[in-house]
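Extended Data, panel c. Modelled sequence:
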Amino acid sequence: MAIVLSAVMALTMGTTAMAAPSPSITTETVQQVVVSSSIGGAQQAVSLSGQQTATLPGTTFVTASGQTVDAAAVAMVTTPATAEQAQAAAASLVAAIASSDVKVVNFTGQGALSLTDAAGNLNIVNNMTIGLSTASGEAVAQNGSISAAFALSDILGGKTLNVGETVQALYQRADGTWVAVPVVIINGTIAIALPAFGGAVNVTFVVAQGTPSTTVSATAATSPRT
């Protein structure tokens, strides 16, 4: 199911006419910031040609030394955040939500996107760094889009979703702006789509009001390169 979800996301993004970012994030007052105590674990690396990832056709990969490499030679590396890193991400995200400037942008294609749970809390259930590297450990940049799939139970860390709740993923760009990205949830698996990035990105998963999506909206968009 993981590869199916990732492939569906990549193909859908590939056939979509990319739109401008939607400003349609619901204005909310965060009641509390809740950071899961289960965040953590071991670093994992999986091949981009494996069962947990998919690549948008036309995506290119370049190493830090400037060499173009094939996707088959690239691994996606996920590094769970420490408790301190998760708290720092939470502080940054809640400040962005409260800012009078646009610090959170919506590239999911969904309207009225919520970032708080049914109780009005900013409920962070997982936080990790996602990057790309070669077998020798050299960092790789990607210019296109990749998708990654995870077991929903691993992302939730033992939490269960209430009726009317889903999971939303956001990543932080180099300029500090947060970007909400497309998420698909089917049969206990969650997949996210990440646009072009030059280095590893911080990805935060929050429980949010809404219905889990099983497809990517036709108005979804990629964000500028991080």
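The first helix runs from residue 2 to 14. This feature is highlighted in the accompanying rendering.
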